[in-house]
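Late entry, written up from scratch paper. The run itself happened at the end of the previous shift, but nothing got recorded in the book at the time, so transcribing now.
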Amino acid sequence: METLRHIVLFVHLIGFATLFGSWAVQAFGGKREFTRLMNAGMAIAAVGGLILAAPWGLPDGAEMNYAKIGTKLVVLLIIGALLGIGLSKQRKSGSIPPAMFWLVGVLTLVNAGIAVLW
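Output as recorded:
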C-alpha cells in the first residue's frame, strides 16, 4: 500500500511540475499567456492531492495534517480560479493582466513550498 501511495505522490508532483514548467516557459519565453497545459497540470496535481488526502496507506501511528491539506486545497482552488478567469479574458481580449499571470506562478511555488516545508 505504501508503494501505491508513493506512486500517487509522484503523480501529484508531476502535476505541479507540469503547471509550473508550462508557466515558466510562458513567463520567460516572452508571450505570457495561459495554456491548456497549465490546466492539465493543475488537474493532475488536484486529483493526486485529493487521492493523497484520503487516509489510506499511512504507517501505524501517523496522523493526517488537515490544516496543511486544507491550506493546499485553498491555494489550488485560487490557482484554478485564476487560470479559469485568465483563460476567459485571454479569449475575449487576447491578453491577461500581468498581475494575474505572475500570481499563478507565485501561488504554484507557494503550494509546492507548503508541501515540502510544512
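The chain has four helices and no strands.
(Scratch paper discarded after transcription.)
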